[in-house]
Automatic annotation (TrEMBL):
Protein name in UniProt: Glyoxalase
PROSITE patterns, per the entry: VOC (PS51819)
Leader sequence residues: none
SUPFAM superfamilies in the cross-refs: Glyoxalase/Bleomycin resistance protein/Dihydroxybiphenyl dioxygenase
Record organism: Amycolatopsis pithecellobii
VOC domain residues: 6-125
Family annotation (InterPro entries): Glyas_Bleomycin-R_OHBP_Dase (IPR029068), Glyas_Fos-R_dOase_dom (IPR004360), VOC_core (IPR037523)
């Protein structure tokens, strides 16, 4: 099973690698791991995100059915991300908001779009056992 040295791998299309670096590194605070002519790899909050140069870019940012993101275990980490998003004026698709209010699955969420219309959702569940 996964341990602290393993990383999930996500790959998404990017129309421009400089835009991807600007958004993920200087916007969200991810770490640049590697860069090549056709792709860029980030340490995305402990997991691996690769943006591949592509002409097949979604025409618009649509949350469903395809998005990726992170569920924060700690509320203060979610709050910190929201402050960064607001301060850096990143493109927000939805939120911050509370979903499933009054249920066991209540959580806060914010959905962003990167420059290539990939959708990233960040969450924080009231009950941390539900983040999986």
């Amino acid at each position: 099973m996964r341990d602290m040295h393993d990383a999930a791998h996500f790959a998404v299309p990017a129309r421009d690698l400089d835009e991807a670096v600007e958004f993920y590194v200087f916007g969200l605070g991810a770490k640049l791991a590697r860069r090549y002519a056709d792709r860029v790899t980030f340490d995305f909050f402990g997991d691996q995100l690769v943006c591949h140069l592509s002409d097949d870019i979604p025409a618009e940012a649509v949350m469903y059915p395809r998005h990726f993101g992170l569920s924060f275990a700690r509320a203060e980490d979610f709050d910190r991300l929201v402050r960064v998003v607001e301060h850096r004026k990143l493109r927000v698709l939805a939120g911050p908001a509370v979903r499933f209010e009054g249920t066991a699955e209540q959580h806060r969420t914010i959905a962003l779009a990167d420059p290539s219309n990939n959708v990233i959702e960040f969450k924080n569940y009231d009950d941390p056992r539900l983040q999986y």
